[in-house]
Amino acid sequence: MGRVLASVEEATTLPVTCYLGSAHSCLGGFCWHSCEKMVQKYQSPVRIYKYPFELVMAAYEKRFPTCPQIPVFLGSEVLRESRSADGAVHVVERSCRLRVEAPRLLRKIAGVEHVVFVQRNVLNWRERTLLIEAHNETFASRVMVNENCSYTVHPENEEWTCFEQSASLDIRSFFGFESALEKLAMKQYTANVKRGKEVIEHYLNELISQGTSHIPRWTPAPVREEDARSQAGPRDPGALEADRPCSAPGPAPETVITDGDKLDADYIERYLGHLTPVQESCLIQLRRWLQETHKGKIPKDEHILRFLRARDFHLDKAREMLCQSLSWRKQHQVDLLLQTWRPPALLEEFYAGGWHYQDIDGRPLYILRLGHMDTKGLMKAVGEEALLKHVLSVNEEGQKRCEGNTKQFGRPISSWTCLVDLEGLNMRHLWRPGVKALLRMIEVVEDNYPETLGRLLIVRAPRVFPVLWTLISPFINENTRQKFLIYSGSNYQGPGGLVDYLDRDVIPDFLGGDCVCNVPEGGLVPKSLYLMEEEQEHTDQLRQWRETYQSASVLRGAPHEVAVEILEGESVITWDFDILRGDVVFSLYHSKQVPKPGPQEPGAGAGGQLTDKGWVLGVDYSRVEAPLVCREGESIQGSHVTRWPGIYLLQWQMHSPPGNVACSLPGVEDVLTALHSPGPKCKLLYYYEVLASEDFRGSMSSLESCTSGFSQLSATTSSSSGHSHSSPLVSR
């Protein structure tokens, strides 16, 4: 029984294989485990024909001597052939000519119109196996292609036949076109590999339609005594080899794997989804590498696949990312998290997130009411590490729910949907330690749970959201950002909104649906629940918080001022400050000239005054934010989208009662305040940051590119340029 190419799949790779000597240059660019000399390797999953081995072999043989389904096959010539004495083993070695299908320029440079491959088939009827080796003769000094394939009986059903294939491509040199050859080969392979299985199935159907649905298994013929004596004499070396099926050359060592290592194509389609041959090969190679080298728990196939997708199926990059994640999981005992982690009662009450049925595609649905969540209060009450651990437990639970939904709905589900409600989001959510903690959580999740987010639906996004988005979006992977859908106002209602992604009977009641949602509503965490400094487990966290802010004292008549230079309009100035003592008035001014502090009065240096007392408001500088009275104990966050370049001054000055404005003498309240507050009258901690115009406009563009109702929010934000988004709140 002959074979033109090394496998069913490969039969369709002929258009590719004729690539200048690569019977599988189609494999170039494959999954690719790439070595220094551009060596590429490919490993197929186990493909199953639900027909007996003998019938599959009959279909396989029908492809010869010609096959209309493989027009690039020009013909073959038997070089050597031998059979064992009992006829159980048949060895055929052929030379096959294939037409070159490549760009004319490449064919002209190569100087050939067809290429030659040598293949060796060992068919063992007794063991019911067909082992195939193939390599190129044309351009063998420049390009080496080696392929090994096998047809075997299914280990659990002897009426089915399994097919496996592995190959390697080593492009040593090819007239300077090595990269082009590799890319061209890969493109052709992925376009044609599916056709290979169809060829065999075509001939199987043809046999059945002709009435051949069963072929008896091989049985040894009785051997007469004189025949046995004659067979003991000298024999042809090829025949001797054929008589030793167990030692007959078959797949290369890399293809000999245990049953537990194998993935069959049906399993992949059912539990992992449709994968291209390139992707299947990457998964199998990375999985096998883990089984051979990793000492701990081997991740599930869907988890390995997520890392491959995160690195666009670049095998080396995915392996590096996965290894780092496995080390992290072991260090932090993440595999035991769902069994060991019990969130504090405070988290269960004030963390406004939870699971809620599934979306329209069967993905688990997680709802997060971020606008109702007091992130600052939670961090001060339970600490950043507890919040991070809770986020990790959500991701672990999400993976578990994906597996359950895959079984429940009978199709692969590897990611979940997150619905984020931003109603109530304001500048308090820009508390810098909270933002830094959020960025850290994003980094941990991106590194260790890639491709787990299928879709992110953000609803009721307020005007302040673009500022928060500008801060966090650079830390979010581009593939993840493309899954964001953002709606402002009530745009999430009606066609094009949530109904496109959630069944109506799943939409939560607080978003106008009929479904009761049991996700906690969040709310402000009482200060009485805050951890005392001596209770904080992580002193580094306290130190980082202190280092984030600068302290300042404000004296009567000597305000504290900070100059911020803005080079172009539509930059964003953000601020965050806590009033520790006394009451202050916060203002924001714009000046075209750089202030030059004059001589300071004794004690005035503590106030940090920059403006010249001779400056005239409305002439030398202008107010761009209305004065905001801030009381002792309050925490203030705000932002301002600048209109003009120049110098902007953040100013804090001591607040005086209204009556003092018209009276030059101190009132009774002033005297009492001075008596009870000796020394500096006011004290505060502050932080400010400038978001460059380019970054802010870029974040707006990325938001507008989301398929959503964000255009209304965009217009609102743009028209509000020059206005603050400040919101005074009791210090959390």
Automatic annotation (TrEMBL):
Ranges where the PRELI/MSF1 domain occurs = 40-212
The record ties this protein, via InterPro entries, to: CRAL-TRIO_dom, CRAL-TRIO_dom_sf, CRAL/TRIO_N_dom, CRAL/TRIO_N_dom_sf, GOLD_dom, GOLD_dom_sf, PRELI/MSF1_dom, SEC14/CRAL-TRIO_domain
Identify the residues that the record assigns to the GOLD domain, covering every copy: 546-690
What are the residue boundaries of the CRAL-TRIO domain, all occurrences included?
343-519
Region of interest called Disordered, as start-end residue ranges on this chain: 215-254
Matching entries from Gene3D superfamilies are given as: CRAL-TRIO lipid binding domain, GOLD domain
* PANTHER family for this protein: SEC14 RELATED PROTEIN, SEC14-LIKE PROTEIN 5
Name of the protein in question: SEC14-like protein 5 isoform X2
Q: Which organism is it from?
A: Vulpes vulpes (Red fox)
State the organism's lineage.
Answer: Eukaryota, Metazoa, Chordata, Craniata, Vertebrata
